[in-house]
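Backbone-to-sequence.
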């Protein structure tokens, strides 16, 4: 929209109802450690489910949030 109609970012955001901070936002999530750990566990224990994987992750001392691990688990299509 900005390139096609040659309007400012501020005006384009106002038209579509988006705040400018959302336009410039860059996610800082780095889930590579969680992905590696889940892949390692699925190779070692392929018939287990999310609850078992999360329990073992916690037993190994990782402090990752359950929602974060579940989001990554679904993102790499393990469910």
């Amino acid at each position: 929209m900005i390139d096609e109609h040659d309007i400012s970012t501020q005006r384009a955001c106002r038209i579509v109802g988006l705040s400018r901070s959302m336009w410039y936002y860059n996610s800082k999530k780095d889930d590579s450690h969680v992905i590696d750990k889940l892949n390692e566990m699925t190779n070692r224990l392929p018939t287990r489910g999310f609850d078992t994987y999360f329990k073992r992750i916690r037993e190994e001392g990782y402090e990752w949030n359950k929602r974060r691990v579940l989001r990554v688990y679904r993102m790499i299509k393990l469910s």
